[in-house]
Amino acid sequence: MTGHSCCDSKPEEYLLLLHFARISRIAETQVPERHHDIDILEALRPLSASIDPAITPLLPLIYHNTARTGLRCRLPPELTATLKNGTMRLVAQDLANRQWLLRNLEAFEKAHIPVILLKGAAFAGTLYPDNTPRLGIDLDLLVTGDCFDDACAILGRTMNPVLLSDKRSATHDTLFERVFTPRDGGIPTVELHRDLTNPSIFHINQQRLWEASRRHPVYNSESVRLLSPEDTLLHLAVHAFRDLDFCNHNILDAHEVWCQWHPDPESLTDRATQWGARKALFYLLATCQASMGTPVSDTLLNSLKPSRICDGINRKILQSPVPSTTDRNTLGYRLIQLMSQLTFPDRLLRGIRFQVSYARLRVHDWIIGLRNRPHASL
Fold this sequence. Notes:
The chain has helices at 12-20, 37-44, 59-68, 77-110, 119-123, 148-155, 169-174, 206-212, 229-243, 249-261, 265-275, 278-292, 298-304, 308-319, 331-343, 348-372; strands spanning 115-118, 139-142, 159-162, 177-182, 190-193, 214-215, 224-226. By secondary structure, it is α/β, with parallel strands linked by helices. Strands 3-4-5-2-1-7-6 form a 7-stranded mixed β-sheet. Helix 9 packs antiparallel against helix 10, helix 9 (229-243) crosses helix 12 (278-292) and helix 10 packs across helix 12 (278-292). It is globular and about 65 Å long.
């Protein structure tokens, strides 16, 4: 087995529940189960008192699998009630998200704006059944660069754009995504993308991305799309790189994509090479193989694996406690982030170009701030 998990810094209980939440399970003769019933029961018991936010999106899957594996009858009644109530809340939230999408996707279609649904919005009703959703924090939508401003205007009718800071207007204008929140303070928060990630770090051919996309089966419209299986895995990989976390619900999503959508390994490798994201894909798939039992071949992983020196640096970054900090403005986090931008992309030069471009933007922000500063009265 070539895969080495990037989950060493995660609590064992979290890994057990993440593994337990899988829908797609492989024959036990192929990959041994990670857990025993007693371990799962022990990992579940603390949920009666409090639920880690990282576990909350998994509650419907966990609750469903307690029945599927015959464990539900062995749970304390209060724990069963907690899991059931949490599941019902998330199913209701998923329904609300679906209603929001129906209304707003219709507005996009009338304006001739095609949309690719991403992550949780894409997986609802496809990877995950309606009664066991895997909710994300927000809804992610991708539109073409030409349609981005018009799409922002449509969302702006009922939502408020979230600005990074009054001091970062130049940066805000160039972001590959914009965040919108409902004016009534409800849900959902929406991230509207014109690129999947920062285009300076990875090279994503937008035309090929859209050509490879397919119609979303839940919505009765050719203009509502899904990424191809290969592009979906790559998006999960570069998103994990951005968060410097290859061990959360993204490996559950990647496991389900691999097992249900059957991406073509050769096409996946070619796409990863085009994106310059072979390393990021390696860490995602290696973690899936090692931690989730995903049947990724050693041949594929060996073809993606970085050099020993680069791999050593990247694993030190991922094993550091710094990326998991909630305060991402610390010097330690910034240094780790700068290093990762050089060692994770396949092309060092792209990381350097991004850092130079970002530095110029911050200088531009500073100059605009000086111009807008009110002059002291004489």
